[in-house]
């Protein structure tokens, strides 16, 4: 039996928050100084803004823009999140810094939260700035006033695109926390890369295919697909965009394909599981 | 003897069938520099991790100070630091983990890295990286410092410099436990030697004591005699056809 050092619980909540931000600041500085990650950010920006620019002048305004960007964002946001975060905890472990951190009054939850806050801040800046510029380009680049795609009272307003951007931000947070969890769970750089690719594929297509297989196999009835779609982060994001951003703007809303409640709960569950899993995997509790 | 600041009491630890410690006890007082020595694979790193709280013993207890924000510092063998940061930024980050009040430049001066404060960590030599590790160990003024082979892989002059800095940590009422294969440096600087071999603490006492016990002239020779003696004893005690371990 080991006697606790009492170090990690020696200070109060304010000191704990301070430590989270000390770790987060280190992560942000790392992002800002990594040219490869800046290139990833620039590529994402170019794709999103480029698609918005290509769509300039086409009818449909914000609804059309949201449709145009939905699939690229669904696929590329996790890619950006994993590029930004997949090595962070694993790298600290490889250098022996995790062992050193454990001798400081820093809990593993504080450490993982700090890593997440720092990396997620960078991902959010990239995603939201790209979408904001895309929205401006699509609006100001049009030769004539943006036409309305719908006659519904909600109509084709910027609210559609703002909601899309907010859901993309939530999706980015979930993708980032999963990347941090993968980074905490693996021991080597090769493992981090392999694990990240596997989780990215699962996020992009794997979970959706599993749902299709479950439906075709009779394990899930067609009427429940809207609820079960919330189990996949990508489907949950897509469902929220369709049901809460696009559908209200359409004159004739389509049949619901997702449950906003299930989708929101699904994303929240992935976030909590990812954060908790990352904290547990960062280092063992030796009491 | 005053109250120990760090102690293993009847501590046992094993990796499966491989016993690292079998109900052994060690106590370290403030101001002591204790060298942990032993053959390769004897479990020195594991013992250090037990002392630093990075592992929990299978049995027995480990006592560390409870009245310090950071009770025990640890420096792994071949430490590394995140690239892209300067020496000062790196130490300031660690200082931030214990709150304000740490003068990073003063700590760097203390270990002889003041002139390299603005150098990026990836541009440091091996010896300077170890010194940065020692500086990190001073953050928060922990009463116990545990160092895993801080001089391994360094040339003799740099090794002496790092060992001098290590010994200096113990001068201000701090307990320092360091593992090392540099027996000349250990003989010259350590207050005590703890020899780990075959799951047991084979010797615990001053360097002179090990010389006297083995009849050797140097610690290097005493180490070989002590380890070889245990192997001979174990072979004699093993049943016919049994494993000498």
Task: Give a topology summary.
The complex is a heterodimer of chains A (287) and B (245).
Chain A: H1 13-32, H2 35-54, H3 61-85, H4 88-94, H5 97-101, H6 108-140, H7 158-185, H8 189-216, H9 225-228, H10 233-246, H11 260-282
Helix pairs in contact in A: 1-6, 2-3, 2-6, 3-6, 3-7, 3-8, 3-10, 4-7, 6-7, 6-11, 7-8, 7-10, 7-11, 10-11
Chain B: E1 6-15, E2 18-28, E3 33-37, H1 44-52, E4 59-63, E5 72-75, H2 87-96, H3 104-111, H4 126-138, E6 144-148, H5 156-169, E7 175-179, H6 183-189, E8 192-197, E9 200-205, H7 207-214, H8 219-237
Parallel strand pairs in B: 3-7, 3-8, 5-6, 6-7
Antiparallel strand pairs in B: 1-2, 1-4, 8-9
Helix pairs in contact in B: 3-4, 4-5, 7-8
How does this model look, in words?
Chain A has 287 residues and is mainly alpha-helical. Chain A has 11 helices and no strands. Helices cover 72% and strands 0% of the residues of chain A. Chain A starts with 12 loop residues before the first helix and ends in a 5-residue tail after the last helix. Chain B is of the alpha/beta class and 245 residues long. Chain B is 36% helix and 23% strand. Chain B has 8 helices and 9 strands. In chain B, strand 6, helix 5 and strand 7 form a beta-alpha-beta unit. The longest helix of chain B has 19 residues, at 219-237. The two termini of chain B are 35 Å apart. Classes of the chains: A mainly alpha (287), B alpha/beta (245). At the A-B interface, helix 1, helix 4 and helix 5 of A face strand 4, strand 5 and helix 2 of B.
């Amino acid at each position: 039996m080991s006697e606790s050092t009492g170090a990690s619980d020696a200070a109060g909540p304010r000191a704990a928050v301070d430590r989270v931000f000390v770790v987060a600041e280190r992560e942000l500085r790392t992002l800002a100084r990594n040219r490869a990650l800046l290139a990833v950010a620039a590529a994402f920006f170019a794709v999103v803004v480029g698609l918005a620019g290509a769509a300039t002048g086409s009818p449909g305004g914000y609804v059309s823009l949201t449709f145009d960007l939905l699939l690229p964002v669904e696929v590329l946001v996790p890619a950006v999140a994993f590029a930004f975060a997949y090595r962070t905890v694993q790298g600290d472990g490889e250098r022996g810094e995790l062992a050193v951190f454990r001798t400081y009054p820093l809990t593993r939850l504080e450490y993982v939260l700090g890593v997440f806050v720092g990396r997620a801040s960078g991902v959010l800046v990239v995603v939201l700035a790209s979408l904001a510029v895309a929205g401006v380009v699509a609006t100001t680049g049009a030769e004539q006033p943006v036409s309305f795609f719908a006659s519904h009272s909600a109509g084709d307003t910027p609210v559609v695109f703002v909601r899309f951007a907010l859901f993309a931000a939530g999706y980015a947070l979930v993708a980032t926390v999963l990347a941090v969890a993968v980074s905490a769970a693996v021991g080597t750089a090769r493992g981090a890369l392999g694990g990240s690719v596997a989780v990215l594929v699962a996020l992009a297509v794997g979970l959706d295919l599993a749902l299709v297989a479950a439906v075709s196999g009779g394990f899930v009835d067609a009427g429940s697909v809207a609820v079960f779609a919330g189990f996949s982060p990508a489907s949950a994001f897509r469902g929220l965009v369709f049901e809460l951003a696009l559908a209200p703007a359409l004159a004739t809303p389509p049949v619901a394909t997702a449950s906003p409640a299930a989708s929101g709960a699904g994303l929240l569950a992935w976030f909590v599981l990812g954060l908790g899993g990352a904290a547990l995997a960062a280092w063992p509790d030796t009491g | 003897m005053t109250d120990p600041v760090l102690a293993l009491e009847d501590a046992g630890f094993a990796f499966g069938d491989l016993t690292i410690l079998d109900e052994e006890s060690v106590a370290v007082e403030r101001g002591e520099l204790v060298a942990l020595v032993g053959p390769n694979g004897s479990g020195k790193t594991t013992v250090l991790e037990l002392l630093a709280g990075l592992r929990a013993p299978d049995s027995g207890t480990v006592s560390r100070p409870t009245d310090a924000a950071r009770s025990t510092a640890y420096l792994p063998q071949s430490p590394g630091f995140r690239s892209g940061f300067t020496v000062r930024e790196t130490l300031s980050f660690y200082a931030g983990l214990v709150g304000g009040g740490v003068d990073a430049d003063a700590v760097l001066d203390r270990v002889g890295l003041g002139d390299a404060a603005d150098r990026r960590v990836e541009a440091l030599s091996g010896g300077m990286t170890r010194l940065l590790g020692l500086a990190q160990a001073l953050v928060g003024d922990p009463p116990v410092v545990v160092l895993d082979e801080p001089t391994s892989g360094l040339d003799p002059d740099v090794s002496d410099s790092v060992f001098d800095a290590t010994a200096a940590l113990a001068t201000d009422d701090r307990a320092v436990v360091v593992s090392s294969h540099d027996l000349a440096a250990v003989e010259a600087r350590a207050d005590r030697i703890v020899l780990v071999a075959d799951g047991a603490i084979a010797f615990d006492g001053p360097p002179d004591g090990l010389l006297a016990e083995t009849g050797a002239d140097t610690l290097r020779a005493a180490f070989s005699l002590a380890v070889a003696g245990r192997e001979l004893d174990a072979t004699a005690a093993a049943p016919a056809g049994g494993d000498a371990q």
